[in-house]
Amino acid sequence: MNKISTTEQVQRSLKKRYRAEKRFRMYGVTSIVIGLLALLLLFTEIISKGVGAFKQHYVSLEINFDADDLGLDADLFTFFDAVREDYGNKLHSELKIADQHATMAEALSEFEAQAQRDFGMTVIDALQAREQQLADANFTGIIRNSLRERFPSVKSRRDRRALYSLVSVGASFDLRDRVNADASLIGTTQKLWLLADDDLDTYVKSLNDSEPFIGRLKENQVEFISSWLEKNEIDARFNTIFFTSGDSSEPEQAGILGAVMGTFFTLLVTLILSFPVGVAAAIYLEEYATKNKFTDFIEVNINNLAAVPSVIFGLLGLAIFLNFFGMTRSVPLVGGMVLTLMTLPTIIISSRAAITSVPPSIREAALGMGASRMQTILHHVLPLAMPGMLTGAIIGMARALGETAPLLMIGMVAFIAEVPSSWNDAATVLPVQIYLWADSPERAFVERTSAAIMVLLAFLIMMNGLAIYLRKRLERRW
Amino acid sequence: MTILEATNPVDTAETAAKDTIKMKEADLNEAATESDHKTVGDCFVENPKFSVRDANVYYGDKQAVFDVSLDIGENEVIAMIGPSGCGKSTFLRCLNRMNDTIDICRVEGKIELDGMDIYDSRLDVVPLRARVGMVFQKPNPFPKSIYDNVAYGPKIHGLVSRRVDLDEIVETSLRRAGLWDEVKDRLNQPGTGLSGGQQQRLCIARTIAVSPEVILMDEPCSALDPIATARIEELIAELSENFTICIVTHSMQQAARVSKRTAYFHMGKLMEVNETQKVFTNPDHELTEAYITGRFG
Amino acid sequence: MDSLHLDQHISQQYNADLEKLRTALLEMGGLVEDQLADATRAIETADGELAEKVLKTEKKVDKFEIDIDKECTTILARRQPAASDLRLVLMVTKAIRDLERMGDEAAKIAKMALALNDDGESPRGYVELRHLAAQVGKLVNVALDAFARFDVYAAIKVVRDDKDIDIEYRSSLRELITYMMEDPRSIKRVMNIMWALRSLERIGDHARNIAEHVIYLVHGMDVRHISPSEIEKQLEKQR
């Protein structure tokens, strides 16, 4: 009797338990769904906004490379091309270096006679004259000529200026590069695709929307654009500029290469400094340091440092590296050092965790064999702890990759158009670049901001992927 | 139904008996904590390998081993038994200074290996541990290949210079550990892939590869099944021809089977050392008797 | 409480098993004691029924031997006893053998009683028989008592007293032989008494064995084939 009622009771409570169990599981599923939705929202928002930045519009124009309009001596350019063919492309850059003129002259001696005959000057002088002509050449002029020819009806100064502004300032640099590369262009007329201004670009991209974005465009400019569109003289191409150039105040010429390189050098410095220091500190604290008040104090401080707002590290860097040691402002070296300060606690903590997770039996086995402390650590502890340490380091680096605040403090927020080529060149980093672009008024920067965010996310995913790969790869191979 | 199965006195006498056990245990513990205890039996032998005099071990303020004096003879198997926390493992680890790895551990007294004080401040522990090897409770092969496991000791001690010699050491060590035939075709496979008993024999092979004089074994079979245990015990018997072996074990039958002498520890004190046969049939100390007959523990 | 602390194992069942062994042995001893008393009385009083009873009890004793033996095997296999427990189990296996032999000897005495009933009363020897039977009965009782109380001194007393019994037996033997030489016709009847005397002497020896086992049990000392004074000396040394 008693037994039966017990079973019944259990049965009854069982249903309740199952329900509770189900509810409990549902809470988890709901949380995950909410998280995924948020992520999806973020991604769609960023991608829908940013995908446009990977396309850039170009305008087709008949460009007449008239030597007189450009103020170029065609013979000089042809001569240069011949010399270059013989001497290789190094010439152009080496010419700039005054010290090498003597050796250059020697090398170019076979052209000496020709230069004297045709131009009445030494070959070096001839080449420098060409350089000067190229720099002074009025490429903007021929673009404007071409535009006037395309729209002959435009007469007034104001209208013409409106017309001119539809082609990017950067188009003239493009033409100069073409002439520099090939002298035979001079004197010919070419149909070329020239980089359009960002206002045109934004407008054309928004044509399919319910309400096209006109922005700063004037009525007549819209007419010009319509005329081009009718004749298929506007084309969208892949935006290589975005990936190959540094920042610019003109959106159509702005790229992220500068920020990417800045990020690369900054993280390189951070990695080189923080990983060895962090691992060494972790090994000492775990394997050598005796447990006492002092090491406890250090441990508490390391844990605290990991939670300190990053802007404070920036202030520290400003005070120590810039003001006290007088290091250069805005360079990846200092940025990397500041980020090192910020990443170190993370790396130390994760490395210590990795070292502690190495089974003590392995350590005992090695010591019992008569291995020294160092042999034990190098032969057994480190190989086993390495995946954990690397994962920690990469996660620390990923955090450093996304950091803006400390870098603002040490001047890495400056507008830097040139792509840095070493860790001692002024540079900015991706998140700062995003911050700068997000602050810019031009509509075209909005999509570039989102595109830069996509690049940053891609980097983060790559680094985290690398962390997972390394962990899988190095984790106890058997 | 035999005459003997007539009654079941367990139920009736249980509570009363438990009380007496508690009282008895208290008495025994009191007896053990008396300060001026003296080890009974034969602590000393002629020409000892290890000679321990008045060893005291402290973990911080807590004393773990009290005034232990004991000789361990050459090529002798000595078993150390006693309840958990009686200090037998701690004592064992004093013999090759494995306790050095614990910061708060302090050893007093004199421990001599062939007349050399191993706690001399000038002594380097590395050669000491090469002479006094250790096998642990849990089989702990390195996460490397079987070959590398055995070759590790000779490598770090620089015992060999040529690969051929190393190969030979690896083979003889594995042979002596009775593992060669089982692993000779897969020396490059991970040592952690072996079964528990094989792993423990691999650890023994690794230990004997550096030709130690003494092998300390800290409950080497506690994680193994009876068959693997029997193999290890057989191995101990073979190794005892060439090595001095100190074995700590919780299995009294094992102590009885493998050892020549048995030492009984209780609450950090060495209560009795005697010939194993004597300890297991007629121990001198009442605490030894109580322990080996399962009267407390 | 006994000095071997048989009831203080962690395992209550183990305590119970050992206790069961001890009581069973004592029970068996009691049976043998009864057999001995009954058999001698059967001769003295020429009571055939009593003699038959002794022979019947013999079966019970044999069953005890087998059961206790089995129990000992079980304990050895299951508990792997050590030290005093081991000695107890070993001692019990040996002691039951001795008790069983004692039972056999008592049965022999009973058979002699039946033979005397058939052949007619012996002219001599009853006094000696009564005397020796009283001594042996006491010896067996003390030996079992020594086991019950793990009393080494009682055990030594048994070993010592067994010597007296041997002397007594030999003098009775001489007396009866002298009588038989004087009166050869009574040889057959006197021989029955002599066999009974001899059985009593054997029972004394077995009691001595049990006492020696008790000394082994308590002190782990093998005292077989050693004189009582030597035993005492060794015990003194161990202390």
Q: Would you mind describing this structure in some detail?
A:
Chain A is mostly helical and 478 residues long. Chain A has three domains: 52 residues; 189 residues, no CATH class; 218 residues, Orthogonal Bundle (MetI-like fold), CATH 1.10.3720. Helices cover 69% and strands 5% of the residues of chain A. Chain A has a three-stranded antiparallel sheet. In chain A, α21 runs antiparallel to α22. Chain A is extended. With 297 residues, chain B is of the alpha/beta class. Chain B has a domain of 187 residues: P-loop containing nucleotide triphosphate hydrolases (Rossmann fold, 3-Layer(aba) Sandwich), CATH 3.40.50. Chain B is built from eleven helices and eleven strands. Chain B has a seven-stranded mixed sheet, sandwiched between helices. In chain B, strands 3-2-5-6 form a four-stranded antiparallel sheet, with helices on one face. In chain B, α4 crosses α5. The N terminus of chain B is likely disordered. Helices cover 85% and strands 0% of the residues of chain C. Chain C is globular and about 65 Å long. Chain C is an all-alpha fold and 239 residues long. In chain C, α1 runs antiparallel to α2, α1 runs antiparallel to α4 and α4 runs antiparallel to α5. The longest helix of chain C has 37 residues. Chains B and C meet through α1, α9, α10 and α11 of B and α1, α2 and α3 of C.
**Could you report the average pLDDT of chain B, rounded to the nearest whole number?**
84
Q: Return residue spans of chain B where pLDDT drops below 50 for at least 5 consecutive residues.
A: 1-23
Computed over alpha carbons, the radius of gyration of chain A is 32 Å
Structural class of chain B: alpha/beta
Short description:
Chain A is mainly alpha-helical.
What labels describe this entry?
heterotrimer, B: 297 residues, alpha/beta, Rossmann fold, seven-stranded mixed β-sheet, four-stranded antiparallel β-sheet, 39% helix, disordered N terminus, C: 239 residues, mainly alpha, Methane Monooxygenase Hydroxylase, Chain G, domain 1, 85% helix
